[in-house]
Task: structure prediction
Amino acid sequence: MRILVNEIKKIFNWRMLLLLAFVNFVLYFLLIDFHITHFPNGRPALDSYRIGAEMIETYGIKMDETDLAHFKRTYDAQIDEANRYLQAREEFVNAGMDTYEKFRNYDQQNEQLSVLHAKIMFEEKVDLFWELQERERLIDFQNNKEAILETRRNDAENESQRARFEQMMEAGHYQVYPEITFENYKSFIRNAAIVILVSVVLVMSPIMIHDRSALMLDLQYTTKKGRAIYKTKIAAGLISTWLLITALLTIYFAIYSFNDTSMFFPVPVHMFINPDYYWYDPTFFQYIVIHVAAIYVIGFIFMFIAVIFSTLMPNYVSLIGIQIPFVIGMIAFGLPNMLDRIIDIRFPQWAMPALYSLLAAASIGLAVMTWKREKRRDIVM
Amino acid sequence: MRIVAYECRKALTSPVLLGLAFVFLCFNIFLIVDRSDLKDELKVVNQIVASQGVQITDESLHRFQQHLQTELSKLNERIMNQANEKYNSIHAFLETLRHEDWEQLSEADRAFIAELQIKEMHYHMAIQMDERYNQVDWRQIGEGEIVQSGLSGKTADYFRDAYAQLVERVEQIKLTDAHKTWFFAGVYHMHSFLFRTIFAALIFEALMLSVLTTALITNYEFEHRTHLVMYATAEGRRLKKDKFIASMISAATVTVFLIGATLAVYFTIFDYSHVWGSMIGSVLNWEYERPYVPWRDLTFLSFLLWSMLLIFASVMIFNVLTFAVSVLTRNNYYTFFLMAAFFGLLFIMPLLMPSLFGLKSIVQFNLSQLLMNPHQFFMGNASIPMMSKHYELITLLVWGIIAAALSWLMLKMFKTQDIH
Result:
């Protein structure tokens, strides 16, 4: 037990913690910061976010026909308001832009009208007009919701996809809610996963090579505990990886909470307007939980890869060099599929669980093999 | 000298580094081959240049138009002789062409049509783009950029001056017709593809490999526990200097190999044989909102060579910095991640700086900002700080001096340092 604790302390030595903090600082600003400070990013993103929050408050997590009618009535009421707004302003009446209809379909070649239009939209940034624009877009989607899903069903690549689309049509799983928070979350988690992946590789890679290059193995392997210390080191690695991922997830989700999106959490993911369709119907919150679990699994897979190469590579440069293709490959090709599309209908239903299991089994299997090799290895050169 | 060679051998024969270089090269080749469907269309542009000369003049345009007309009449004869219609442009022909008719055409006819279409597109582009070139109001763009970057006072004046120089430069280009040369049309995005996609990949790969080789050589003795033998005497400590030279040679070798091999593949696949002498600021090389306006008249070839030199110099400066850091940390692992994070830190500097005294613009004069925009080297149409006329030179000089000073300091420190 004492050895285990000391091994963990060795992994999280103060120099490593400083480097970890520095790397995370830089990566945060490179990858994550934008999705936090610029959310919602300008107009009409802000209006989309506001309307979405309002819709959840009024209609809850299911939007039936009466709700849709209510949404349209709100839109009509806002048009009346916009008409009154325009009619109350002399310059707009004089220019003949006295109804929202005229405002919307203004002649873009006409300079006077363009200036007036820009004045409301970009100078004064009147919420009402931006909101109307966004509501229009949403109503468009709501009107076409059946048609969109039908097209998807007709374009289905195979029987199981078709069955899934039909099931969604039967259950009335249509896309009606604005997607802005969901898209923002997806960008956030993809980048957070990159940061966590790099952090795990950074902290775990020296795990075996450190003692070996310090010629400690001669001492360690001749003690009573002997080569079993290798297993203790792996255990220390597992615990440290868990600690590291948990700490980083906590920090980054705490930062994410500034986006204030929790009201969207109970909404099922199939309700967001979105080109993606899923095999299952988790809520937004459950979807986050799936991602968190996936990040843990990926983190542990890369810990095992680090253990393997840390045992096999002759020096630190080789250790880093050999892992670069794995990490870059994972970031460029792995993560976009393994996170965003973890329950995506584009892949067969079994594909993602199978891929995760395969990667996990392969990395653990290879780690066991290196342990077997370590048990028999001649340490006297 | 023999020691330097032995030190180089440590890095250049390391199987992992060689393997990594090989993987990087494969990746670059993959990037290139992925776009190779364009290569036949680019050949047509070479044909144009071969027959019309690289300069676009009124006379050559006229000649080109006549050539197009004869080609068109051939088309009318060959393909449309059964129909009575005559087309005056391939565009009009293709618009009326039905899918079934296209299916019936022979392979040679289709190739002929495709070729003619590309020629016609380039002809129209040459005329249209020239007109658009004259309409770009750089002064207004400059004002817009300055407002957008939130600059005021002296910094704003500095960049206003830079834009005034740019306006002058554009006038000069228009006078000398330096922009009127044939090049692959902007729709192919060949400039971005080569100088952004491929070069960005090359830069990252060269940086990673150079950091790894330098770290490997510099800290080899510490890592292999031979430091007590090697550095025990004053004479032994001089080994560090040899290691410095060796790391520079190794990094240079790796960089030259990567760039050379990748570009060799690139130019084998894509035919540039007749456009080497075309201007990089050609009106046809207009990919996004604004055309490329280089500060000097650069042909494609000279732009390519200068860019390669710039990248090589930057990688070398970064390598000198790496040397300083690895002497300081004595640990390859920390060296690599510190350098990687440092590169990122330089890149986010403008984000971290308060918008006071133009600090945001000043900190953009750094290596990583320079290297992240290889398609904008020597260009006046770049974003605010990079549009300063001597951006590349200033950045390289400043960072070269910083790196050299640090390395010298570290070498001096190392002579008297406690090594145990």
